[in-house]
Write a structure and sequence with these properties.
The protein has 293 residues and is an alpha/beta fold. The protein has a single domain, classed as Ribonuclease Z/Hydroxyacylglutathione hydrolase-like (Metallo-beta-lactamase, Chain A). The protein contains ten helices and 13 strands. The termini are far apart. The N terminus is likely disordered.
Length: 293
Amino acid sequence: MTKRTLAICCLVFAISAHAQEAANPFTSKEVSPGIHVIYGAGEKFVGGNVSVMVGDEHVVLIDDAMVPTAPALIDAVAAIAGKPVDFVINTHYHGDHTGGNAQLAKDGTLVVAHDNLRKRLLEKPGDAGGAAGIPVLTFSETVTFHVNGKIAKVFHLPHAHTDGDGAIHFPEANVIHAGDVLFNGIFPYVDLDGGGSIAGFIAAQQQLIEMADDDTLVLAGHGDPVATKADVERNLAVLVDGRKRVKALVDQGMSEEEILAANPLADYHDDYNWSFITTERMTQTHYRDLTSE
């Protein structure tokens, strides 16, 4: 093979590899027999982490990325499941978790979510890919799936990340899909305008910890996709301590600008600051939450 031929082959391989990466921005990991977590494979943001339960009877998907990336996600799910999705459970209303609803629904998938989530998507159906993506099955507290010889219990976590959060517990597998009630290793987004609260977020994580043991795998909505009970405890400790630090300054009568200048979360900046929820924005969220009570 000449150097020119070798160079051409290398170029073709590089272009092909790039095209595959661009067309398939998701990767997956089987965390328990029949349960896979799916997450972005590169640096580009493609939506929140999702998971899928597969078996002889049904395919149950949890969340479905954003409208632009939903087709690639659905392809990734098809590669794992080998058949269409029967149910998709939305953990909350944000468009980076509901974007594939309409496409899936048009293919026969039933969309399941909390009552409050449906209400919010009715106000902004574009986040679900259009009106076809509005959930058709809703619950107020819990709903249980009995599929593939296993149980998947969906339960509401009030006023945590939003007012319509749902987490999913697979008791036989000892797996919990937490959705955006867990941002693993990064500052969390608490959607105060969407009915979320710091107190509710803390309570929700405490509930997850109480359900877990040292072998439980907790699937996060963002950040490192697979966490342990110890990881959830570590993330919770940062949130609780951050709230305490900001509250101490609020109690001193300091303004938001003064608190931001004091930088009470500086100790967590190197590990938890990220592009969307910076240290400054996390401080602002604490301040707003504390002063609106």
